[in-house]
Amino acid sequence: MTALLTAPTQAARADVPAGYACTVTYSTVAWATGFYAILNIANTGTRTFSPWMLQFIFPGDQILSAGWSGTWSTTPPSVQVTNPVWRASIDPGTSYELGFNANGADEHPSGFTLNGVPCTVTFASAK
To answer: What does the alpha-carbon distance between residue 20 and residue 84 come to, in Å, rounded to a whole number?
Structure first.
């Protein structure tokens, strides 16, 4: 069974140019000491994100242990992932999937932004 939760839509910042919009679907599977997450980033606007960087905030003491399909880094509690060379842009109407493993509790992160643009987030779990 899959549970879906949608975070409140965040208002666009005043300094975000018109035409930029995004959604993130964040799906996880947990185990005793950690979890893995699959993220699907969708460009729901009319302008291309290129190059791109997704950022979010872990809610606790989660620690990123491995990531794929992007260049991952952390400045706890913030997590950043930048585009891989083979996917430098996310065009309008397209999406991109990537993921990571982490140690710690499988709790919902917050503050998802793509190049500083707040994204609407849907959380899913296989629990």
So the answer is: 20
